[in-house]
Amino acid sequence: MTVPPTPSSLPSGAGAPQENHSGESAQVKMTIVALSGLVFLLVACVIYLLPNRGYTTSPSPLASLNAFLNACATVCLLFGLVFIKRKNILWHRRSMLAAFGISSMFLLTYLLHHAQVGSVPFRGTGMVRGVYFALLIPHILLSAAVIPLALLTIYRGWTGRVSLHRKIAVITLPLWLYVSVSGVAVYYMLYHLGY
Fold first, then answer.
1. Distance CA 75, CA 146 (A)
2. Closest Cα to residue 123, out of 190, 38, 24?
3. Of 51 and 98, which is predicted with more confidence?
4. What is the rounded (10 degree) CA torsion for 147, 182, 139, 149?
């Protein structure tokens, strides 16, 4: 009678499922890509495909709510950073999940706002116009990058892949902070400096 080999008696890499280098299954990667793609599609449709219903020189309540939510997300991100520096995992997790929840609410109100008013053009001139676009262009590009990065970072933290979580969190956090802070700055410039 032969005894089947135990996993510890097999040569390295034999008999055990191979984990990919990033630590995520194909299903997790596809879910993150699908969610990110859906967000990109929704934003593009709302801003570019829906008819522009006009804009006003004063911010709508939704535009103001968007800026407020971005500011709140910034505060939560900063608290999350402070908590992890103090090794307070519980409150770090709570702060970061709050930031993600608030950013998700922002996305919803952002879509609703732009479904109502379309794309709001910046009317400022001179140097302030250059500063506005210097903030806006990286804000747009980085906001697209933050969605999959935040999802992956949260997934890795949630599933206890701490070393992989740390590796990507050092990239995600500064980008997410820039997007949140620059979102408030863009709002202020668009509605308070551009007219």
1. 17
2. 190
3. 98
4. -20
* Rounded Cα gap, residues 132 and 194, in angstroms: 9
Number of alpha helices (DSSP H) and beta strands (DSSP E) in the chain: 5, 0
Give the model confidence (pLDDT) of 146-193 as tens digits.
Answer: 999 999 999 999 999 999 999 999 999 999 999 999 999 999 998 887
Q: Quote the number of domains for the chain.
A: 1
Range list of H helices, 159-188: 162-188
Predicted pLDDT at 117:
80
Check pLDDT > 80 for residue 20: no
Q: Tell whether 16 is covered by a domain.
A: no
Q: Is residue 4 part of a domain?
A: no
Kindly report the CATH number assigned to the domain that includes residue 135: 1.20.120.80
Question: Does the pLDDT value for residue 55 go beyond 50?
Answer: yes
* Distance in angstroms (rounded) separating the CA atoms of residues 189 and 168: 31
Phi-psi region of 6 (alpha: psi -120 to 50; beta: other; left: phi over 0): beta
* Mutual angle of helices 89-117 and 26-44, in 10-degree steps: 30
Domain-located, residue 114:
yes
Q: What is the DSSP letter of 47?
A: I
Tell me the residue range of the domain where 147 lies: 27-193
pLDDT band at 106 (very low <50, low <70, confident <90, very high): very high
54 part of a folded domain: yes
